[in-house]
C-alpha cells in the first residue's frame, strides 16, 4: 500500500498496483504523468484518476459502455503501441466524466478515451477516429430528466 | 510563424521525413495530404482543443460528487 493525498478523500492508502503512468500527458495537463486509479466510494463502476503529484488534480472516469452499450473503441494502431499492448485482453478503456453543477446533466467524453494497459499500467489519452463521438455525451437523456423533474415536483 | 506560399500539388518537407502536400485548393477550403512516420501525432486542431477544454472542465468538478450520488440513487429507486 502507498499513502496518497487525494482530492476526494484526503490522505488514503491505495494498493501499489493502482498506480498508472501516462506515456504522454492528458491533454491540457502537462507535467503530470503519474496517477492512481482509485475506486469511487459509494458509487459502483466509477473511478478517480488521481494525480500522484497534485492532490487537487483528479478526474472521474468510467467505462463508456455503462452508459452507451454500443460504444466502439476506434483508435490508431500507433496509439495502442504507445502502451506496449501485447494482449488485447489487457486493454482497459475509460472515458472522463464531467459533472456540472446539476449532476443530472453529467456528460462523458467519448471523443478522448483513456487507454490503460492493465499489465504494465501504461496509459494514454487518445482521440477517437469516430467523428460522431463528441466530448459531451449526455448520460441521462432529456426524457429521463423530465420524468425526474416531474417526480420531484409531486 | 513561418509563412510559405504554395500552389496545388506543391508540398513542404519538415524534418526530412514529414511531407505536407496541397492536394486541392478551393476558395474556402484546402485539402492537405500528409506523409509522416506512424509515431507522428496528427490531429485536427479543433478536436484537440475540444478534448483539452473538456479535460479542464472535468477536472474542476468536485463539490458535485455528492449530487451525483443522489442522482444515481434516485435512478435506482425508479427501477
Mind summarizing the main beta sheet of chain A? 7 strands, mixed, barrel
Estimated helix fraction of chain B: 25-40%
**Structural class, judged by helices and strands of chain B?**
alpha+beta
Instruction: Note the overall shape of chain B.
Output: elongated
Strand order of the largest sheet of chain A: 3-4-5-6-7-9-10
Mean pLDDT of chain A: 90
Shape of chain A: globular
Total strand segments of chain B: 3
Number of helices, counting only DSSP H or I runs of 4 residues or more of chain B: 2
What is the averaged pLDDT score of chain B? 88
- Helix count from the secondary structure assignment of chain A: 2
Largest interface (C-beta under 8 Å) = A-B, 38 and 28 residues
Structural class of chain A: mainly beta
Distance between the termini of chain B: 58 Å
Sequence of secondary-structure elements of chain A = EEEEEEHEEEEEH
Radius of gyration of chain B: 23 Å
Q: In percent, how much strand structure appears in the residues of chain A?
A: 25-35%
Uncertain segments of chain A of ≥5 residues (pLDDT<50)? none
What is the helix/strand order of chain B? EEEHH
Q: Tell how many strands the DSSP assignment of chain A holds.
A: 11
Looking at this protein, list some descriptive labels.
heterodimer, A: 154 residues, mainly beta, two-stranded antiparallel ribbon, 11 strands, 33% strand, globular, B: 79 residues, alpha+beta, three-stranded antiparallel beta sheet, 2 helices, 3 strands, 25% strand, elongated
Describe this structure in words.
The complex is a heterodimer of chains A (154) and B (79). In chain A, 12% of the residues lie in helices and 33% in strands. Chain A is mainly β. In chain A, the strands form two sheets. Chain A has a seven-stranded mixed β-barrel with strand order 3-4-5-6-7-9-10. Chain A has a two-stranded antiparallel ribbon with strand order 1-2. In chain A, strand 4 and strand 5 (46-51) form a beta hairpin. Chain A is globular and about 50 Å long. Chain A starts with a strand and ends with a helix. The mean pLDDT of chain A is 90. Chain B has 79 residues and is of the alpha+beta class. Chain B has helices at 45-60, 65-78; strands at 11-14, 18-26, 29-35. Chain B has a three-stranded antiparallel sheet, with no helix packed on it. In chain B, a hairpin with a 2-residue loop joins strand 2 and strand 3 (29-35). The longest helix of chain B has 16 residues, at 45-60. The radius of gyration of chain B is 23 Å and the shape is elongated. Chain B starts with 10 loop residues before the first strand and ends with a helix. In chain B, 11% of the residues are buried. The mean pLDDT of chain B is 88.
Amino acid at each position: 500500500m502507498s499513502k496518497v493525498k487525494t482530492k476526494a478523500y484526503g490522505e488514503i492508502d491505495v494498493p501499489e498496483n493502482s498506480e498508472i503512468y501516462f506515456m504522454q500527458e492528458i491533454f491540457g495537463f502537462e507535467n503530470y504523468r503519474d496517477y492512481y486509479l482509485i475506486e469511487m466510494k459509494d458509487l459502483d463502476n466509477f473511478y478517480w484518476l488521481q494525480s500522484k503529484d497534485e492532490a487537487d488534480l483528479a478526474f472521474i472516469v468510467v467505462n463508456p459502455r455503462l452508459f452507451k452499450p454500443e460504444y466502439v473503441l476506434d483508435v490508431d494502431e500507433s496509439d495502442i503501441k504507445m502502451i506496449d499492448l501485447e494482449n488485447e485482453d489487457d486493454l482497459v478503456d475509460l472515458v472522463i466524466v464531467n459533472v456540472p453543477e446539476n449532476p443530472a446533466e453529467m456528460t462523458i467524453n467519448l471523443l478522448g478515451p483513456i487507454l490503460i494497459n492493465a499489465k504494465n499500467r501504461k496509459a494514454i489519452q487518445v482521440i477517437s477516429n469516430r467523428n460522431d463521438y463528441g466530448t459531451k455525451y449526455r448520460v441521462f437523456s432529456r426524457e429521463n430528466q423530465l420524468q425526474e423533474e416531474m417526480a420531484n415536483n409531486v | 510563424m513561418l509563412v510559405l506560399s504554395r500552389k496545388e500539388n506543391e508540398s513542404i518537407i519538415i524534418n526530412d521525413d514529414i511531407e505536407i502536400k496541397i492536394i486541392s485548393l478551393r476558395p474556402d477550403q484546402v485539402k492537405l495530404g500528409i506523409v509522416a512516420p506512424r509515431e507522428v501525432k496528427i490531429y485536427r486542431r479543433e478536436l484537440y482543443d475540444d478534448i483539452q477544454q473538456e479535460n479542464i472542465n472535468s477536472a474542476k468538478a468536485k463539490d458535485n460528487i455528492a449530487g451525483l450520488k443522489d442522482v444515481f440513487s434516485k435512478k435506482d429507486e425508479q427501477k
